[in-house]
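Problem 12. The chain below contains 307 residues. Write out its predicted structure in token notation.
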Amino acid sequence: AVRVGQWVLAVGNPFGLDRTVTLGVVSGIGRENINLSRYENFIQTDASINPGNSGGPLFNLRGEVIGINTAIINFAQGIGFAIPSNMTKQVIQQLIARGKVVRGWLGVGIQPLTPELAKKFGVTEGEGVLVNEVFEKDPAAEAGIKPGDIILTIDGSVVDSPNKLSRLIGALPPGAAPKIEVVRDFTRHILTVPLSERRDTAVVASLPQSRTEVKLGLDLQDLSAGLAEKFKLRETRGVLITKVDPGSLAHAEGLREGDLIKEVNRADVATVGEFTSAIAKVRRGDTVLLRVLRENRAFYVVLKSTD
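Solution.
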């Protein structure tokens, strides 16, 4: 196993200097959110990595390849990244066998749990990831996963970030049936989910217009079939945000024109009237949990109500 602090050697061809070897230590493992790939699990090292090192091996002192040198952070000293060799091995095996890489597909939209969201859903911050969307006829939908579920583990492996979930599912082949532990309405469930093959789908953008005032710094309008067609929305019902007051809590939480509200505090809302009724049940100072669609992708946001 790779450990922080162990000695490593990076071999490569930096700036055309053939067979260059540099020495350093493992500075960190499991690095993600570097924005180089959808599936990130980098080894961080301070062994000198420069342009031309990419693709070269990162060795331990036993001469075993533990990673493939990949990237550095510009203008920083001693911060380089390598793809772990076990991740590389999976890709190589698939390329040899199939000529392409095939990854498992769950069919959910996910987001990290902020402290406010964690409190609303009855879990601790960093415990799992929040399902904000379940795609029709995809494996998650067929297995009974629902928006608002918190995914905790996949085959016993803890899921503590969206990147970790993508990586765990992506490492499984189509047809695999992992056991997925979720929290729903404060109760834990274990679901077996046969995965399909990942496919890329297009996302359609949208924009808004119109008028009707409600709380929380929002102007809203019912989404009609005509508006849905006009703004190229796949939905035909929901509450369309047509204006966000500058400086309001809705604005501070990133809501914007064209967002479509689908739920208030876990209850479906299809009209402004239903939205208003749901908001009327919220007491002063309580938080409001909204499920919102933006460009046909869903997310949750927590607002604190005001008069």
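Discussion. The longest helix spans residues 85-98. Students who got a different answer should revisit the alignment rule from Section 12.3.
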